[in-house]
Structures are given as structure tokens and as C-alpha cells.
Amino acid sequence: MSRSRLPSFGTVAIAVLTLGSAAGAASAQEGAHGYGAAQSGGFSLGVGGVVGVKPKYEGSDEYEAFGFPIVFPKFGGNDLEGRVKVRGADDVRFKLFEAGGFEVGPLAGYAFGRDEDDGDLLRGLGDVDDGFVVGAYAGYHLGTVLFDVSYHQIVSGNDDGYQIRFGAEVERYFSPSLRGVARVGTTFADDNYTDSYFGITRAQSLRSAANLSAYEADSGIKDVHVELGLTWDVTERWQLKGSARYGRLVGDAADSPIVESEDQFSALIGASYRFDFQR
Fold it and tell me: Which parts of the chain sit beneath pLDDT 70?
């Protein structure tokens, strides 16, 4: 039976709210990026949703759609949306502290697992559960470039592996209401993660409908990737965002017998609307 994707939608929304609530007392020094300015003493709520497409599993040459809601509260001058970045279902970041070009904060999200019926090569290997993700990130601005590193630990399900992502990005404003981001990066995965998503145990090999041989995937760099994103402040209240990502599996991940394609594409598009409430 296929796992339901529905729990992941609410999970990301909860993650955004949790990150925002944890820093509700923090003072936001920057202005809103398309979220508008709530009047002093007022309350604003940005709500919207994100839909996207991604491979059915890492290494698949087939794709599936997914989606999740987003919620950004704002109390008076405290702009939480300006501190939140949604880089994916498993990577919702909150900028908790910023000084001298450095920024740090927690992250949370949801990791999609896989079903053994997501691909012919997976039949007989069993499922990998979806799971909650928690972690943290740190970044440094050097001129127009942001260099960052993030830690993503899966804390539920039958996989307890982690990933460390390294990246660099440049943001450019094409107009006051339109800006773009270009990003390159790479991902390190530990033994537990690579075993769960790319390895094949002897027992799984015996059950494999595709007669796959046992395979041990060690920790190491599992992909390199490039991303492009656009944000358009359509009006004072409406905002649209979109992004596209190309990743290339490398190392033990790319050599896994379950990999149908080393080339992995994904895309997201989202919209949000701001509601204002006066006290």
C-alpha cells in the first residue's frame, strides 16, 4: 500500500509556525520582502501554498507532484516572514541571529521516504518511511555572495540518517518588486542515510523482484546541484515565488543498483496573501 503524502503538507506548515513562535519575541530589523508592513500595534497573517514536482524517489526517472501550506504571522513591527526561507519540504529556515555578515538559525521540515512500488527496481526492498527533520544552519555574506552550511537530521520513521549541505548563492533585484536567486551546492550524507536510500541488504537482495545484488553505500558526497529562484511582489499583499533545481547524483549514491537516472530535477511554485488585523 502506498504511503499517504497528506501528512507532509500540514507538517511543513506546523514547522513554519513553530519556528516563528520560537522567535516571536525577537526584534526583526529588516523590512518585509513583499509581505507588506503591518501597522504598529496591528497583526498580519500571510497565508498561501506551495506545489511542486520531484522524482518519485532519489534516483528515479519518474516524477510526482506534491504540495504544502505556508503561514507567516507578523505582530506589529516583528516581521517573521522576512526571517523565514522555505527551500524545500525538508528545509524551512528561520534566521534567528544576524550580525557582522553572519546569520544562524534553526531549521525544520519533512523528508519524503519512498514506497517499494515507486519503481520497478524497488519492488521487494520494502518502504522507507517519511520523517520529521530538524537541524540548524549558518551563513556568511561575503559581498553579494551568501555561503552557508546546514545540518538536516531525520528524527522519526525508520531512517535516522543526516545530511550536511554546503552552498553559495547570489541574489539580484531586477526591479523593486522582482528579484532572483542563483545557487550552487553539494550534499554530504552519512552511512545511515545512504544505507536507507541507496543500499541493498542481503535480505533485500533475496526479496528483490528485479534480482538486484546486495550493495553497501558508504557515507560521502551524494550530489551536486544548482538552483534558480524568482520572487515577485505582485501587489502589496500578493506574492509569487518559483524555483527550479537540477541535481546530479555522485559517488556511491550514483552507483546504487536502484538508481534509474543520475539526473534529478525538481521545481516549486508558491503564492501567498497578507491579511491585516487591527487591534
Answer: 1-42, 75-82, 279
**DSSP state letter for 205:** H
Q: And the C-alpha cell for 240?
A: 509569487
Q: Which letter does DSSP use for residue 26 in this model?
A: S
Please tell me the distance from the alpha carbon of residue 180 to that of residue 170, in angstroms, as a whole number: 8
pTM, two decimals, is 0.80
For the chain, the domains span: 6-277
DSSP 175: E
Buried b (16+ CB within 10 A) or exposed e, 18-34: ebbeebeeeebeeebeb
The string of DSSP letters for 33-92 reads SSS--PPTT-EEEEEEEEEEEEESSTT-S-EEEEEEEEEEEEETTEESGGGEEE-STT-E
Find residue 189's DSSP bridge partners.
163, 220
> For residues 143 and 98, what is the distance between their CA atoms, to the nearest angstrom?
15
pLDDT, tens digit, 9 for 90 and up, residues 107-134: 999 888 899 999 999 999 999 999 999 9
Q: Hey, which CATH number is domain 6-277, 3.40.30.10, 1.10.132.30, 2.40.160.40, 2.10.70.10? A: 2.40.160.40
Round to whole Å and give the CA distance between 38 and 76.
6
Strands of the chain, DSSP E: 43-55, 63-75, 78-79, 84-86, 92-94, 97-99, 102-111, 131-142, 145-154, 162-175, 178-189, 220-233, 238-249, 263-277
pLDDT at 83: 81
Q: How far is CA 158 from CA 114, 125, 165, 201, 263, in A?
A: 11, 14, 22, 15, 26
